[in-house]
Amino acid sequence: MQETILSIAGKPGLYKLVSRGKNTLIVEALDETHRRMPAFSTDRVTSLADIAMYSDTDDVPLMTVLAAVRDKEDKKACSLAYKKCKADELRKYFAEVLPNFDRDRVHDSDIRKLLSWYDILVKNGFTNFEELMKPTEGDNIDDRMAEKDEEVKKDEKKATSKEEEKVEKAEKKSDKEK
Questions:
Q1: How far apart are CA 168 and CA 174, in angstroms?
Q2: Would you say 83 and 40 are in contact if contact means Cβ atoms under 8 Å apart?
Q3: Are the CB atoms for 132 and 115 separated by under 8 Å?
Q4: Rounded to 5, what percent of the chain is helix, strand, coil?
């Protein structure tokens, strides 16, 4: 089943997209509470499908990294105590998962966040990361920009017709006065 899993800057955990409003997204927390709340347009919301990890060659999509952790852990929660372990232990573990990760640009906090997200997803029954994070129809930025351009054109057309109505009313009023 296709889900949209989101991360919201400044808020802990992960969220599942439930619905879209005009200026908000309705999200559900992927924790014990499953609390629903709005994510406003001012919040920095990022889909996990849009995130990648730095490597020595190309950026590796997050779904690939999560799948590698899943394969290493046999679809179970992370065996490493990543919250308390030392930096070299953490990096050694991550090197087993992604051997060519960029050791300069990938920080310990990035690895800890990735492993915490992995645990949240596994705990909520999401283990098929390739299916979970594959692009869906409409995810193409060109499609979104085309839709936005159409909306702008409609708004401009409405504004032009309202201006024309005002001009016509003014002309009729001036004709009556003559």
A1: 10
A2: no
A3: no
A4: 45, 15, 35
To which H or E segment does residue 10 belong?
A: none
- Count the neighbouring beta carbons within 10 Å of the beta carbon of residue 24: 14
Tell me the three state secondary structure of residue 138. coil
Structure tokens at 99: 């051997």
Q: Measured between alpha carbons, how far is 64 from 70 in angstroms, rounded to an integer?
A: 10
Q: Looking at this protein, which amino acid is placed at residue 158?
A: K
The model's pTM is: 0.71
Token representation of residue 176? 């009556």
Query: 35-86, pLDDT tens digit by residue?
Result: 999 999 889 998 888 889 999 988 999 889 999 999 999 888 888 888 889 9
User: What is d(CA 20, CA 38) in angstroms, rounded to the nearest whole number?
Assistant: 9
Extract the tokens encoding 23: 């200026």
Angle between helical axes of 62-73 and 87-97 (0-180°, round to 10): 100
Which residues, at least 6 apart from 123, have a Cβ–Cβ distance to it below 8 Å? 77
Look up residue 84 and give its two tokens: 């308390």
